[in-house]
Design a protein that fits this description.
- The protein is globular and about 110 Å long.
- Helix 3 packs parallel to helix 6 and helix 8 crosses helix 14.
- By secondary structure, it is an alpha/beta fold.
- 23% of the residues lie in helices and 29% in strands.
């Protein structure tokens, strides 16, 4: 086996950006003329100057009568002013035939052209007309209910500037100016592909050990958001010739971005292909970032070529850090201005010295301000970005941020859109169902899975509306209630049967009760378990049953019932503990051990909030009770 290559030179984030940009021209790539109906989201290439006045004539803002304001002075309900009618009826598009002299009025509709002589319009609600005259019951002032020519847009006025992105509102203005076409910046075309024999395009069957290609979907959508045009080249296998061909095809575009094969291991071919580029070629390979260290930045003939790390969170961060600003510039958009909000950390965070770390967080409003919960799913997670509100930057010389530390959170969207209901605690498919129903009712929900102990702690600190927990008190064996403080309210949820999961046919478990099965597993050195994370209700039950014994696999700690089931189903472990609902989903054998109560803890000062009450009503509804039973749970109505 050949020795693994190392990174060319790990550089700081700022140095990598400097090297990358000094070989690029950060300017629009040219303009094109397109039909107005196709201009939504495009960027103006030139200023737009009005060639007409809008409105192009003095017009009425209401249905009523065009008058000389002086003729209406003193008009009231008790003292009307009577004016003769000219005989004109001025609908929109009708040019007046008669002027309005003193003592006369002309009927006019909203949008109608104001006739010569008139300087105001009296609303029809304040008049009575008949027999060739109109009675005015309310005085008008000069200019009342009239829009004068050019008051909206004046001829020669610059109404839009180059670099402005066109929304439906701007398109309406351009239409009002009579423009059927508009000159916009050409969209930068960005070639996108993913690499790896384990990568499968969405829609195809998924072999064991393979993963669906989420990176290309994420990056393609991001390119469109940035004003570019994604050119999707699909999934390229780990074959140097195929990768070279894909890169050559991609270089017909304005930029190339692909993911995987950046870490310079023996099987990683992407960097070898890019290393053949010249003028100047690779400018940085290995950046002191977390996540994102393996990113590779190159430029050839003024075109950026970027190899993103394969893990989704790393890929998205490095894309937005290095390539997104380039695409914005190519598209004619100004640099992005990210909003920041202050927050505090609810827990201690450790960081690696020597690397700038970006930590995704979810923001929770409390009486003391925003709290930033780390979204700790790792760089391989595909859901971390979708659930996060923003991120904090931990400097390369910082190793620890203590609980309660103030931080600045850069928002991922233009502004913070707070949720109506904050759920923190243990994840469960039952809670997923309840959340889905509330979302369909129009509530915005933020859910963070931090385990039962983390949820209980968050509730005690008032950092959530509801915490889903299933914690057994070791002293009494009772679930949840003994752990409450006076400031917390317990809402009964549902019962979940916990038990041992195994592959059907395993004689160490098949046909045995829990005690016998665990005895057989512990006595067999080749029988490997998969554990749960410390602080979870399942881990507390397991440790109580093991009574100090640590079988093979005890140190492998997963964060969900599903992770336990997958490990057993894929033969990476032989047994573990999960709920029966999950065991059925994966076709595993199940030995019941103990029913646990999955309940909901609510800070009392949040109990009367309308979204919390909506959750409680739903939980107690016959609809929810049926749904929970269908999921394999024992509804609260069955045991309260």
């Amino acid at each position: 086996m050949k020795p693994q290559s190392q990174f060319l030179q790990v550089v700081t984030r700022d140095e990598a950006e400097k090297r990358f940009r000094e070989h690029l021209t950060l300017a629009p790539l040219g303009s094109e003329t397109i039909p107005l109906h196709a201009a939504l989201g495009r960027v103006l290439a030139e200023d737009v100057t009005a060639s007409i006045d809008v409105p192009g004539f003095d017009r009425s803002n209401v249905d009523g009568f065009a008058v000389q304001a002086a003729d209406t002075w003193g008009a009231m309900e008790e003292t009307v002013r009577t004016l003769a009618l000219t005989g004109d009826t001025l609908a929109p598009g009708i040019v007046p035939r008669h002027e309005v002299p003193a003592g006369m009025a002309t009927a006019i509709a909203t949008g109608g052209m104001l006739p010569r002589g008139a300087d105001a319009v009296v609303m029809i609600e304040h008049t009575d007309a008949g027999n060739g005259q109109v009675e005015i019951r309310r005085a008008a002032t000069e200019g009342e209910n009239v829009s004068y020519a050019g008051t909206d847009i004046a001829r020669g006025e610059t109404v839009m500037r180059a670099g402005q992105r066109l929304s439906s509102r701007e398109i309406g203005v351009l239409a009002a100016l009579g423009l059927a076409e508009v000159i916009v910046q050409r969209k930068p075309r960005v070639a996108i592909f993913s690499t790896g024999n384990e990568i499968v395009a969405p829609g195809a069957p998924l072999p064991t050990g393979a993963v669906y290609d989420s990176n290309a979907a994420i990056i393609g959508a991001a390119v469109e958001e940035l004003g570019g045009e994604p050119v999707r080249l699909g999934v390229i296998p780990d074959d140097e010739a195929a990768l070279s061909a894909a890169l050559a095809k991609g270089l017909s575009c304005d930029a190339v971005v692909f993911s995987g094969g950046t870490s310079k291991g023996e099987g990683d071919l992407s960097y070898r292909v890019v290393a053949a580029l010249k003028d100047p070629g690779i400018v940085a390979h290995g950046v002191a970032l977390k996540p994102g260290k393996p990113v590779c930045l190159a430029v050839t003939d003024g075109k950026p070529v970027v190899i993103l790390p394969g893990f989704p969170t790393s890929a998205v961060f490095t894309f937005h850090e290095f390539l997104a600003p380039v695409i914005r510039a190519f598209a004619g958009l100004p640099p992005e201005q990210r909003a920041q909000v202050p927050a505090t950390l609810p827990m201690r965070v450790n960081s690696e010295r020597g690397r700038t770390e970006y930590l995704l967080v979810g923001l929770v409003p409390t009486d003391g301000g925003l709290v930033a919960y780390p979204m700790g799913k790792g760089s391989g997670s595909v859901t971390t970005f979708s659930g996060a509100d923003g991120f904090i930057t931990i400097g390369q010389h910082t190793e620890i941020l203590d609980a309660g530390a103030p931080v600045q959170v850069q928002l991922l969207s233009e502004e913070l859109d707070p949720a109506d209901l904050i759920l923190i605690g243990s994840q469960c498919v039952g809670l997923d169902w309840l959340s889905g129903e509330l979302i369909r009712q129009g509530l915005r929900i933020k859910a963070m899975s931090v385990g039962s102990t983390g949820g209980l702690t968050a509730a005690r600190r008032g950092e959530c509306d509801i915490a889903g927990i299933h914690l057994m008190d070791p002293a009494t064996g009772e679930y949840n209630r003994p752990l409450l403080t006076p400031d917390l309210e317990l809402i009964y949820g549902y019962g979940r049967m916990q038990g041992l999961v195994f592959r059907p046919g395993d004689v160490r478990f098949e046909g045995r009760d829990a005690s016998s099965a665990m005895g057989a597993a512990i006595s067999d050195a080749n029988c490997t378990m998969v554990n749960r994370n410390a602080g979870s209700g399942t881990r507390i039950l397991l440790d109580r049953l093991l009574d100090g014994v640590k079988p093979a696999g005890y140190g492998v700690q997963t964060k969900s019932h599903n992770a336990v089931a997958v490990a057993v189903a894929q033969q990476r472990a032989d047994w573990g503990m999960a709920i029966d609902t999950v065991a059925r989903q994966y076709g595993l054998g199940f030995i019941p051990v103990q029913e646990e109560h999955y309940d909901f803890v609510i800070p009392k000062h949040r109990l009367e909030r309308a979204p919390v009450q909506a959750f409680i009503r739903l939980l107690r509804s016959p609809q929810a009770q049926r749904a929970l039973r269908d999921l394999g749970f024992r509804a609260a109505a069955d045991y309260i």
